[in-house]
Amino acid sequence: MLPITIWESESFFSPRDYIIIGSGFTGLWSAYYLKKRHPDRSVMILERGTIPGGASTRNAGFACFGSFTELMADIKQMGSKEMLELVDMRFRGLKKIRSLFGKQRIDYESTGGYELISREQYPDINVLRTQIDQLNQQLKKITGKQKTFQLSDSKIKQFGLGGSGHLIENSLEGQLHSGKLCAALLQKVQSMGVTLLTNTEIQKLEINANAVELQTNLPVTLKAGKVLICTNAFAKTLLPDLDIKPARGQILLTSPIKGLKIIGGFHYEEGFYYFRNLGSRVLLGGARNKFLKEEETFSAITSSPVQENLEKFLKEIVLPGVQYTIDQRWAGIMAVGEEKKPIIKKVNDRVYCAVRLSGMGVALAPQIAKMVAGMM
Ligand SMILES: Cc1cc2nc3c(=O)[nH]c(=O)nc-3n(C[C@H](O)[C@H](O)[C@H](O)COP(=O)(O)OP(=O)(O)OC[C@H]3O[C@@H](n4cnc5c(N)ncnc54)[C@H](O)[C@@H]3O)c2cc1C
Q1: Residue 169: inside a domain, yes or no?
Q2: What are the angstrom distances between the C-alpha of 375 and each of 229, 253, 318, 339?
Q3: Does the pLDDT of residue 1 top 80, yes or no?
C-alpha cells in the first residue's frame, strides 16, 4: 500500500470513539447496539477479510436455541440456571433478528426444529416422555409455550428418515440465510453511521493515557477511545490468556432433490450432527464429536475422514434410497472452551471482548452484543 496522505489519515483512518475488531455477527450486532446507545459517537469495524471471514458466513443457518438432548447435557454440565440463561438469550436473539429484518429479507423460515434420537439412547419411551415434560416445565417461562418440545415419532416416516428411533419436535425453531443476515446487518449499521474497513488485520493493541493504538497490516496506526474484540475463535492473538480453542465445523450440500421430504432443521447426537433443507437441497454438517482432536484447528479446509462420515450419515439416515450428488463442501471455525458460556469481559478501562460463541451464535450474538455495549 502507498504511504498514507493527510486526507486519508484525517478521514478513513481518523481516530474513533469505538473500534470493533471482527465483522461477524457479534461485531455487527455490537456496532448496532453501541450506535443505538450513543448515536453521536463514532464507531468503526475492522475486518481482516474481504468479507467476514469467520463462522458467521460459513455456518448452517439454523435459527435455533438448543435441541432436547443438548439442553439435557447442558443441565448436567452447567446446571439448570445457566442452561436457562443461555436459552433465554438465544430466544430473545431470534426474536430480535425477526423484528429488525422481517422474515423475507433474510430467508427466515419458521419450519420448526427436530431432533432424531436413537432407541439405544432412550430404550424406555416413558423415561424420554418424563424428561421432555420436566424440561418443558423449565422452558415455559422463556418460550411461553406449555410444550416447547414434543414427541413426533410419526413424522419420521413423513420425512423419509432412516434408522429407528424417536423424533422430538420444537415448533419455535427455524432457519435463515446467514449471508443475507450478515449483509442486512452491515447495511443497517452503515445506515446508522458505522464505518467498516476490510482487509485490515489487527496485530497488536497498545494502550496509552488517552487512547488505544491499533497496529495493523496497513502502513497506519489506528486510534480509538475504546476497543471491542469480537474475533471469536481467533481472539487469543490479541488476548492470549483467554480459554478459547478453535473448533472446525464441516458442511456438505447436496444437489437439488425432486420431491425432497426433509423440511426443517434437524439435530442428532446433542447437536453434533445437524441437517436442514435449503430449498430442495440438503445441507448437512457436523461429526466433530468423532474427530475432536483433528478438528481443533484454524484451517478452514474440509477433510476426507469427516466428509466421508457425513456422507455415510447422509446416505443411511437423512436420505436413504434417494439419488443426489454432493455439490459443495465447506468448513468454518467456531470457538469453544472449558465452559460453554461466551466470554463477555472488560479487559481493562479501554479494551473489552465478546467472544467464544460456540455453535449457536446466530441466536446468541444479539444479546451478547447488547450486554457488552451496555458495559462500554
Ligand atoms: C460449520 C459451522 C456451522 C454453524 N452452524 C450454526 C448454525 O446453524 N446456527 C448458529 O446459531 N450457529 C452456528 N454456528 C456458530 C456461529 O456461526 C458462530 O457462533 C457465530 O458466527 C460467531 O460469530 P462471531 O461474530 O462471534 O465470530 P466470527 O463470525 O468467527 O467472526 C470473527 C471475525 O473476526 C475476524 N478477525 C479475526 N481476527 C482478526 C484480526 N486480528 N483483525 C481483524 N479481524 C479479525 C474474522 O475474519 C471474522 O470475520 C456454526 C459455526 C460453524 C463453524
Answers
A1: yes
A2: 13, 40, 44, 22
A3: no
202 lines ligand 1 (CB under 6 A): yes
Q: What is the largest CA-CA distance in the chain?
A: 73
Q: Is the CB of residue 22 below 6 angstroms from any atom belonging to ligand 1?
A: yes
Spell 225-234 as b/e; 16+ CB within 10 A means b.
bbbbbbbbbb
pLDDT by residue (tens digit) across 349-359? 999 999 999 88
Tens of pLDDT along 260-318? Answer: 999 999 999 888 999 999 999 999 999 999 999 999 999 999 999 999 999 999 999 99
Q: Are residues 324 and 369 in the same domain?
A: no
| Dihedral sign for Cα atoms in the order 135, 110, 59, 252 | positive
Ligand 1, residue 60: give the atom nearest the CA.
Answer: 8
How far is ligand 1, taken at its centre, from the CA of residue 325, in Å? 28
Predicted TM-score (pTM) of the model is 0.96
Q: What is the mean pLDDT of residues 191-219?
A: 96
Distance 20 CA to ligand 1 centre (A): 14
Domain coverage including residue 23: 6-58+179-242+339-375
C-alpha cell at 246: 478453535
